[in-house]
Specification:
This protein has one domain (3-118). The protein contains three helices and two strands, in the order αααββ. The chain has helices at 3-28, 33-58, 69-115, and strands spanning 117-121, 127-131. The protein has a two-stranded antiparallel sheet with strand order 1-2. α1 runs antiparallel to α2 (33-58). The radius of gyration is 25 Å and the shape is elongated. 4% of the residues are buried.
């Protein structure tokens, strides 16, 4: 496959990734698992193709030199947009992860406080009043 065809394939793939990242970034503002799931699956599939494509291009030392100036600048502009969207996406995912972990930690602390001292059996079989987490159930996914 020549460099021009590879470049056009890469541009098409990156444009698809840009669309998916924009969609995911918008959905991350008010995340709901049922909305995000198909977008994340699509993003993962596209990233697999993107990685494969970039690895193949990396094996071609004359790739960049074989491109026209117009095609090279088109790739550069798209790469900059892609990188900016990836930065926003990474930040939003980090915030969402930290927020979810904070909620889980609060639930754990609340369960520990609600449990108080629960009698149980120690290692030697004697009854002890140790702190153990009370069993809890959640009525929705977080």
């Amino acid at each position: 496959m020549n460099a021009t065809i590879r470049a056009h394939n890469l541009i098409e793939l990156m444009e698809d990734l840009v669309v998916v990242l924009e969609k995911e970034n918008k959905l991350l503002e008010t995340p709901r698992a049922e909305d995000l799931s198909p977008v994340v699956e699509e993003k993962q599939a596209l990233f697999k193709h993107y990685t494969d494509h970039v690895e193949a291009i990396a094996q071609d030392p004359g790739f960049s030199a074989a491109l026209s100036d117009d095609l090279r600048s088109q790739l550069q502009a798209l790469a900059e947009k892609f990188e900016a969207l990836m930065t926003v996406n990474r930040r939003k995912l980090e915030i969402l992860t930290k927020s979810s972990q904070h909620v889980v930690n609060r639930i754990i602390e609340a369960a520990k406080q609600a449990a108080g001292d629960i009698p149980g059996y120690g290692r030697q079989g004697a009854i002890s009043n140790g702190r153990a987490a009370a069993p809890i159930a959640m009525n929705r996914e977080i």
